[in-house]
Specification:
Belongs to the FliN/MopA/SpaO family. Its main location: membrane. Keywords: Cell membrane, Cell projection, Chemotaxis, Cilium, Flagellar rotation, Flagellum, Membrane. It comes from Fulvimonas yonginensis. The longest helix is centred in the middle third of the chain and has 6 residues. The chain has a domain of 65 residues: SpoA-like (Surface presentation of antigens (SPOA), Roll). 0% of the residues are buried. It starts with 41 loop residues before the first strand and ends with a strand. With 105 residues, it is mainly beta. Strand 2 and strand 3 form a beta hairpin. It contains one helix and four strands.
């Protein structure tokens, strides 16, 4: 029994080379109006502390836990665990706020 394989030639058109500096048509068009209603949760990370399990279980109300961050160091603004900006804590009425000083590029 003989089996034949049919092979056809296809022609591919060449795509233009992307230009630097934002020229040309973007591959994906962003219509941010489609996302305006989506809520996201941001986190402000002040610093970290390393403790033993024993020290963790010994913590009680009123204890102080020293962080690895200087008092005047910028804090991180995170989205889904990724830093997207940095800034400094400020008072906004009776709440904390974040004055953004740098946005990740």
């Amino acid at each position: 029994m003989t089996t034949a394989t049919l092979v056809e030639t296809i022609e591919l058109s060449e795509l233009p080379v992307a230009k630097k500096g934002g020229e040309g048509v973007p591959m994906v068009r962003r219509d941010l109006a489609l996302l305006d209603h989506v809520s996201v949760k941001l986190e402000v990370v002040l610093g970290q502390a390393a403790v033993t399990v024993k020290e963790l279980f010994e913590l009680s109300e009123g204890d102080t836990l020293a962080l690895d961050t200087d008092l005047d160091a910028p804090v991180q603004l995170q989205l889904d665990g990724k830093s997207i900006a940095r800034g400094h804590l400020v008072a906004v009425g009776d709440h904390f706020g974040l004055r953004i000083t740098e946005i990740a590029g």
